[in-house]
Design brief:
Length: 94
């Protein structure tokens, strides 16, 4: 299965190497023309990802989708986010 990033690279290669139009390259790659020029404005959440990975490594049985019941704290650099989980493993901010 090919994802959007690979399709975008394929369309760019078709435009640059084969001198096809963007419209035709997108059609051949199975991509909309808007996806070819899309630039994400979202900032990466590296601190949060690292904190979750640390917790997951420390407690491999928990995983990401099923945190323990009760109260525990996720610490990210200068932020400390206390959370309470309900019985279904969903976070409830406290």
């Amino acid at each position: 299965m090919v994802g959007p990033a690979q399709r975008r690279q394929l369309a760019q290669w078709i435009v640059n190497a084969k001198a096809y139009s963007q419209q035709r390259a997108c059609r051949l790659a199975g991509l909309s023309r808007r996806m070819l020029t899309y630039q994400s404005k979202r900032q990466p959440d590296t601190e949060v990802e690292q904190a979750l990975q640390t917790v997951a490594r420390r407690h491999p049985g928990w995983g990401f989708w099923r945190p323990p019941r009760g109260r525990f704290v996720i610490a990210c650099a200068d932020k400390v986010i206390p959370t309470i989980t309900n019985g279904f493993g969903a976070f409830i901010a406290s």
